[in-house]
Amino acid sequence: MKRLHYIDKIRGLAIINMVLFHLCFNLVYMKGLSLPFFEGSFGDVWGFLIRASFITISGISFNFSKNNLRHSLKLMAAALIISLGSYVFDRELFIKFGIIHFLALASLIAIGVDKIFRKDSAKIFFPLSILVFTLSFAFMNKSIYIGTNALAFIGLYNRDFRSADFFPLVPWYFLYLAGYFSYYVFDYRAIDSKESPLSRLGQKSLLIYLIHQPIIVAIMAVLGRI
After folding, report:
1. Which candidate, 25, 20, 11, places its Cα nearest to that of 165?
2. pLDDT per residue over 116-164, tens digit each?
3. What average pLDDT does range 66-74 have in this prediction?
């Protein structure tokens, strides 16, 4: 299947923004540096757009994958590395269900969805997914707690739950579905785009995600001693 380089370019742009966002985050919350633009509404919107971009593109890309089960298992392995690494580095920053954990589970569920979904109903489910995501995203800011963390991956947890990176199925899976359904609404293959350094960067997004934080932290540590 021919690769859509403009999708990789969007993913590449998202990964650049993610690295810059995490650099700002580390400077503010690990080094105590004041970055007013980041600590205000701009930082919130910036972070949301990065997260939304990755999840939507992942939903779209599900339809291009040659082996989604293998892809899901690869993401699960990466998620395990992230959890173990964050736990060893700082238990306060332990990542229990971050974006890679979410994408691994999301793609597994989508394998089942793909088997039962009627492609001709995409024009209904695409806007419906966006609507449900919007409503559930607004609702998730409400304080609703239960007595266990066993359902944290869904979005239900107790007051003591902590995860430095957290992407529960509700509301984010509805955005993933919007990306998945959009494949049957829009003709993505009609857009032509050539490979570029940005698209090649996008193809390495998982690797960059895994290594960028340790590199940033290491550089900050070295510069802090100079």
Report:
1. 25
2. 988 889 999 999 999 999 999 988 766 677 888 889 999 889 888 888 8
3. 94
Question: Using an 8 Å Cβ cutoff, are 30 and 147 in contact?
Answer: no
Q: Which amino acid is at 27?
A: L
Tokens 């609703």 belong to 144
**Nearest of 39, 3, 6, 9 to residue 21 by alpha carbon:** 39
User: Phi first, then psi: what are they for 13, rounded to 5°?
Assistant: -65, -40
Phi, psi of 97 (to 5 degrees): -150, 75
Which pair of tokens denotes residue 193? Answer: 């785009």
Amino acid at 152: A
Query: In DSSP terms, which residues pair with 166 in a beta bridge?
Result: 97
Residue holding tokens 């960059």? 208
- How far apart are the C-alpha atoms of 140 and 143, rounded to whole Å? 8
DSSP string, 40-108: SHHHHHHHHHHHHHHHHHHHHHGGG-S-HHHHHHHHHHHHHHHHHHHHHH-GGG--SB-HHHHHHHHHH
C-alpha distances out from residue 18 to 130, 143, 179, 190, Å: 23, 28, 20, 28
CA dihedral 194, 197, 199, 204 (to 10 degrees): 150
